[in-house]
Design brief:
The chain has 471 residues and is mainly β. The protein has a domain at 46-338: Methylamine Dehydrogenase, Chain H (7 Propeller). Helices cover 0% and strands 47% of the residues. The chain is built from no helices and 43 strands.
């Protein structure tokens, strides 16, 4: 049998021959304290939890990847299953794709009442959203403008479409998907059209173009990124670039000159970003982050866990629709608020015989001082009372006691995560050991019907679990 696993939980594992003190457990998630975060002044926000999950829809199997909200509150959302519509006001699903006929959609852009969809099938699609039902336009041969197997981001404004073609470069298209110009690039992944200006990422650079004359675009400026740019959004002078595991960089543009304002660090991997006034929403797989870009920013003010995995999103007027793997998930700002944000470590597993101290990192991903109290529970901890400033991480070492398994209980002043536990346990690593019980959503080929499977249902039988993706 084959099971499809849809999400992963971060776990720290330390084998018997490895001294955990030689590793850097903070490198994947804790902000870089030596990096340039820009000048930050006073922030006029109230204390409190700034973001909450308010609705979610889960239907048949889908991999929702991106969304864009129209002015009337309707939203286009796309994924491997295809193109769908959701009403963020009434919280109703308006349209779902039939089967996988228009599948492998990856990114979506809205220009008025027109939706443009980039795919991983070397095609683009155009939908008219002016009526009750989305009508797909027949672009004929223009639906296949690329020679590569797939492409990345898509953006549109005023009838001009920009399509990121990775090593094929940046494609500029007209409203009928005719290619106007191809701009060479090595790793063009993110793009944004704003009037007669086009922003795009080429590897670890952000580039600004003047496209007043689309057949002769002029490069105005380019600036270095901390990581590979994956998505861009621009509103006013705010420019935010999502960069996967490197978080997000924030820039401003004045007189066509780019300058860096700061950076945003959060758990997970930043795949998608949408700027909503002075706020930035970031889809970062593990979490959906909310950042303040106004006076005193940029700074992360909080985050919320998705139902599964936040891959992309669209935001407008304080509401965000998240492409949350199998879910369409709605989150909302609760007001002009900021708070401390705890992101507890995942389970800490070690191999029997490893008696070296185990590291455990706590980080404040919010905008106010985070206070954490840890209970030792038979373990010896280097610290039990933590006070972390915004962006600060702290290493706590664990000395094992007589018990092989322990739960470290914690409490914090994070308004939506006041308590929790961290598991410390031995890992079953050898052949012949009994695997812990687990339950996953998946399917058994050739059927594509998703069901729930438990390992105990197949005791005594060989089980093959296939983890895969179609991004």
């Amino acid at each position: 049998m084959v099971l499809l696993a849809l999400a992963c939980t971060p776990t720290h594992y330390y084998p018997a021959d490895e001294d955990p003190s030689d590793s850097d457990p903070a490198s994947d998630s804790a902000p870089d304290s030596d990096s340039d975060t820009g000048e930050r002044g006073d922030i006029s926000l109230e204390s409190g939890d700034p973001i909450e999950l308010t609705d979610t829809y889960r239907g048949d199997f889908a991999e929702w990847m991106d969304a864009e909200i129209l002015e009337d509150g309707r939203a286009a959302i796309v994924g491997v299953t295809g193109f769908a519509m959701y009403d963020t006001v009434s919280r109703e699903v308006l349209h779902l794709p039939e089967g996988h006929g228009d599948g492998r959609a990856y990114r979506v852009a809205v220009d008025g009442t027109t939706a443009w969809v980039g795919t991983r099938a070397d095609q683009i699609r155009k939908y008219d959203l002016s009526g009750d039902d989305p009508a797909q336009a027949d672009l004929g041969p223009n639906s296949r403008p690329l020679g590569s197997a797939y492409h990345e981001d898509i953006s549109a404004d005023g009838g001009l479409v920009a399509l990121a073609g990775i090593d094929q470069g940046l494609y500029l298209l007209d409203d009928d998907a005719n290619v106007l110009k191809v701009i060479a690039g090595d790793a063009v992944i993110g793009t944004k059209v704003v009037g007669d200006r086009v922003y795009y990422t080429d590897g670890q650079e952000l580039v600004l173009l003047d496209v007043t004359y689309t057949d002769q675009p002029v490069e105005l400026d380019r600036i270095e990124l901390r990581g590979t740019g994956r998505d861009i959004d621009v509103e006013g002078e705010h420019i935010v670039v999502a960069m996967g595991g490197s978080g997000a960089d924030v820039f401003k543009v004045v007189d066509d000159v780019l300058s860096k304002k700061g950076q945003l660090d959060l758990p997970g991997s930043a795949f998608g970003v949408d700027v909503d006034g002075d706020w930035a929403w970031i889809a970062a797989w593990e979490v959906v982050g909310l950042a303040w870009l106004g006076e005193g920013g940029p700074i992360m003010v909080g985050h919320e866990d998705p139902e599964q995995s936040a891959m992309g999103l669209g935001a407008r007027d304080g509401v965000a629709l998240i492409g949350d793997w199998q879910n369409m998930t709605v989150m909302e700002r609760t007001g002009d608020k900021m708070g401390p944000e705890v992101h507890p470590p995942g389970p800490i597993l070690y191999q029997s015989g490893n008696d070296a101290p185990l590291p455990m990192v706590w980080t404040n991903f919010g905008a106010e001082t985070l206070e954490i109290t840890l209970q030792e529970a038979g373990l010896e901890l280097s610290e039990t009372e933590l006070s972390l400033e915004p962006g600060e991480g702290k290493l706590v070492t664990i000395t094992l006691g007589n018990s092989a398994t322990s739960q470290i209980a914690w409490s914090s002043n994070d308004p939506d995560e006041p308590t929790g536990q961290v598991l410390v346990d031995t890992a079953n690593t050898g052949l012949g050991t009994e695997h812990p019980e687990m339950t996953l959503s998946g399917f058994v080929p050739p059927s594509q019907s998703v069901e729930t499977y438990s390992l105990s249902d197949y005791a005594g039988k060989p089980v093959f679990i296939g983890y895969w993706t179609t991004w």
